[in-house]
Fold beta-ketoacyl-[acyl-carrier-protein] synthase I.
Amino acid sequence: MAVALEPAQEITTLKKPPTKQRRVVVTGLGVVTPLGHDPDVFYNNLLDGASGISEIETFDCAEFPTRIAGEIKSFSADGWVAPKLSKRMDKFMLYMLIAGKKALADGGFTEDIMNELDKRKCGVLIGSAMGGMKVFNDAVEALRISYKKMNPFCVPFATTNMGSAMLAMDLGWMGPNYSISTACATSNFCILNTANHIIRGEAVSILL
């Protein structure tokens, strides 16, 4: 008795389709924190459970019952930011500039490599919860005396994106430049947006 059989089907394996997207590499670390200004020192202090909280020294807070904060001690902008610019900037901008330049140095971006980069394709993307509070508070105090005492840099220096703008101007980078503020997800959004800019060909390097 003849039995009709279906021909055996070839076993097919699912192959990952070739991707034409650019690969993105995240490299280089730079920190300016109450727990240290070097990535290894900062990380080891985190593992040791060290606290960055200390008494506030940068302004008089005797009227406040609670006088503790995570201030950054032994902080110096020498060698990283021009003295004239350093005096005019708010602290949060200095932190961004120095941490950003440290990240470039840690990533191996030497002066020769920086000169070879297409600055039109290099950007800066910064994540920050708030802008320059000191320059804003100083402006409020100045207004109590006279509007003529108002610092003209009050409004631009108080915005979060001014840190990325100052860093980009310092480096001469003219690519994507803005800031992100999404609470605890800020860092993840910065990395995601940076990767998307590079994949789409809008930038070849973004400092975040």
